[in-house]
Amino acid sequence: MNPPESYTNLLRQTVEELSDTSKMQGLFHQHRHGDPLPSSAALEEIIGLCRAVLFPGYYGKSTLNAVTVRYHIGMEIERLFALLTAQVQAGLCFGQQDDDCRCTGVDFHTKAEAIAATLISMLPQVRRTLATDVEAAYLGDPAAQNNGEVISCYPAIRALTCYRIAHELYRLDVPLIPRIISELAHSETGIDIHPGAQIGEYFTIDHGTGVVIGATCIIGNHVKLYQGVTLGAKSFPLDVNGNPIKNNPRHPILEDGVIVYSNATILGRITIGRDAVIGANKWVTHDVPAGQKV
Q: Are 245 and 280 a contacting pair, CB within 8 Å?
């Protein structure tokens, strides 16, 4: 239905104002015809394929056995390589700031293929690390009956699978795509882990909802968090123009064996020492010695 005549000029004027690209600095990403675009749907499929490869029988085809597993994983890896190459290339294009440079050439595609192949080659190690996370979740929760329940049901394993894949892509300098993957996990589980964080083995998050782990966090082995924990930044150093300085270390370091109970907030580049325990609802902005209970 067309708008009433009395509003036509108002709407036309609004369209003109909203379409003025000179007033959209930093708010408008201009697509170049032919360049690939990142796709949340494709990245969701990529995560699904990774889960099926990492936890066969729990995700993807449920009728696998020792005879058919190699065939199904081979099919999934082939599909994963094609999808991942396309999305990595889209991420490289998105991060390309040179307006005169096209992203559809052989160089971009070849680089995307190399990154996709590298990530896939890392999946056996990712699985070995996730196996430690599954063990930590199982041993850390008396309600868990077996590893299968942990893999199938626990949001921490879903979020950590996304994180550990996104982290490898982040280390490979792929723009945008790792953040989209981490936000997919955030939407699915309520757990927000920046792909730049460094997290060791045997890591678990009990319940998980509301957990936030910042970009420059360093977390050791055998660390356990409960729901609502924030590992954040206390303040943002500013440059001469008053803008936040990017990429400086600003989030906590949690050493091996640390436990942080629900709704605790730990802020700034501080160190929580080995085997320290942070109680529920605590606000911590200073170093905590090894073994201390707060």
A: no
